[in-house]
Amino acid sequence: MKKSQQMFNYHVWATASLLEFINNCPELYAKNLESVFPSIRATFEHIYEIDRMWFVRITGKEELEHAGLKTPYDAKITLAKLHETMIDYFKKEDSSKRVTYYNSTGSSFENKLSDLLIHLANHGTYHRGNITAMLHSLGHKSISTDYIYFLRK
Fold first, then answer.
1. 30 exposed, middle or buried (CB, 10 Å; 0-12, 13-18, 19+)?
2. What 8-state DSSP symbol labels residue 34?
3. What are the Cα distances from residue 124, in Å, to 27, 40, 98, 130?
4. What pTM was computed for the model?
5. Which of 141, 121, 127, 138 is nearest to 43 (CA)?
6. Could you give the count of Cα atoms lying within 13 Å of 53 in the half-sphere of its Cβ?
7. Residue 145: helix, strand or coil by DSSP?
8. In sequence order, what are the residues at sequence separation of 6 or more whose Cβ sits closer than 8 angstroms to the Cβ of residue 64?
9. Is 125 helix (H, G, I), strand (E, B) or coil?
10. Which domains does the chain have, with CATH numbers?
């Protein structure tokens, strides 16, 4: 497996692990907070929308709908479905493939698929950190989703 695909698989694992943890305290999921995002729910919705947006950019197909992630369970199922679709697609693609896409302002860019997979993993890591900080601000511990724990599984 290519390192970039492994990093994306780590992103999938870490996101699912954190959602599984939050499923045990669902009352915290939609609680309003003073943070980067107004709630843990809004942060997971952002992760979903960005993963979905990049998948559309990479494939050129807008097959997946926008989704409301009202509960941790909704988020777990919806993100799992998206991530399964993405993993299946990435397994069949050459990671050195060049992807041309347009950003939100209409500017055109081109990057290797492998770089975009690493970008998605990094983006998810950043926002899972936001969620962990939110949990701590609510008086709850989080779980470790460090890359090394993924490698040990």
1. middle
2. S
3. 23, 13, 22, 10
4. 0.94
5. 127
6. 13
7. coil
8. 52, 55, 56, 82, 85
9. helix
10. 3-152 (1.20.120.450)
pLDDT at 120 over 70: yes
Length of the chain (residues) = 153
Give tens-digit pLDDT for 11-41: 999 999 999 999 999 999 999 999 999 999 9
Q: What is the DSSP string of 41-91?
A: HHHHHHHHHHHHHHHHHHHS---SPP----SHHHHHHHHHHHHHHHHHHHH
What is the rounded CA–CA span in Å between residue 29 and residue 88? 29
Q: Which helix (H) or strand (E) holds 111?
A: strand 108-112
Q: What's the token pair of residue 27?
A: 């009352």
